[in-house]
Amino acid sequence: MSQKVRVRFAPSPTGPLHIGGVRTALYNYLFAKKHGGDFILRIEDTDSQRFVPGAEEYIIEAFTWLGLQFDEGTHIGGPYAPYRQSDRKDIYKKYVEILLDKGAAYIAFDTPAELEAKRAEISNFQYDASTRNGMRNSLTLSKEVVDNLIKDGNQYVVRFKIEANQEVVVNDLIRGEVKYNSSVLDDKVLYKSADNLPTYHLANIVDDHLMEITHVIRGEEWLPSAPLHVLLYRAFGWEDTMPQFSHLPLLLKPEGNGKLSKRDGDRLGFPVFPLEWKDPKTGEISSGYRESGYLPEAVINFLALLGWNPGNDQEIMSKDELIQLFSLEKCSKSGAKFDYEKGKWFNHQYIQLSSNAEIANIFYPMLEEKSVDVNIEYVETVVGLVKERVNFVKELWDQSFFFFQSPSSYDEKVVKKRWKEDSPALMSELIDVLKGIEDFSAHNQEEIVKAWIESKNYHLGNIMNAFRLAIVGESKGPHMFDITATIGKEATLSRLEKAIREIKLS
Ligand code: GLU
Prior knowledge:
four-stranded antiparallel beta sheet
């Protein structure tokens, strides 16, 4: 590629960012970084009706959490600023004028009621080459009438004048050539005098052109807009710098039938937003990947593989590997099933790949909340012993609480099964054996305790089960001697003594 690659992620701030939007942004990012290009955040907020306060900040926070850095954007500026469309009103006005002067667009005064009446009169009414001559617009009214209507404060829109029966080819890197006949398109509204704002279509094209965007990578739902966009480039005379299109496959429900929605997340219990979102109007809270305990690297790896693969069955890939391997040509044309269980699997893998120190740092505040007072090195050791048992950091407590507190009660079922009549006596003997151990490492304890069991001809299982019940309070946990080596000799002995005192035979 001779020209510097420039891609943009162009969300409309209409609410929290859907996970499908995150995947779109990720593919833009991977493509840009692979080609040494720029990744731009442009906020498309020209639809004032749908604007939701806080949505832009949410989007920026989500990408900061994910570690996907923009090179230019509303929050960091850049050489093509401003990056928020509502701050670019004057720019669009000029381009509306250019299209009007060229005769590629016209002014239309039809009121909503008039349009409604037409729809009632003509079935499948479309404002286009076949109908525009019967409407109230600058093609049917004299210049004088048009000027007076505007002067008198009548609202109007500017429509794109699409000629009938032209072939429009959308060249898509994923889908190949997609051909359209222009007659299927209506004369889209490009600008509304009522709010002095362009519509999405005009602002999007003008900005892609001015910001020198080379590749437009976006969701499949925008494919139907692509022929209109191609015609707009033509009308402006910008065909030579038209970006290369790629329309990404849909994210599908886990069952594979239809588009993934927030309702699927609610129904099956998984988040569809990167961060938790509180609806400013209703106060309703939607869960997020961050708050649900996902590591950002796991989310990135998981999303990268929803609609793309490197051509082999490699699944675990760091961000740098993804950048190296990514290509739009390898994106699939068909929808990608949102396999949430796979998402959990990725998180599990990334917890194992993270250092104990990294995971301990995330776990530590949860321990503080429970008023557990230990040093971070201790937490790191515990994490190392139990992390293979969890998919999420928050599950660590359930797998490790006994490293931080002695049992306050003993699981009844386990007591019934594991605490025998001779258990108190055996545990007393075990206390004596343990007292004599200088080097309390797991390995040394194990050797000495097992030798004692063997010499006395005791049953290994009986001893170890009662031992675990005394130390943990239940029958769970990692290797017994790893637990006792970690909590230390003193705590081990006092827990055994407490168990002898407190566990009652039923
Ligand atoms: N503003 C559009 C959106 O909300 C952008 C579509 C595009 O990338 O062209 O997704």
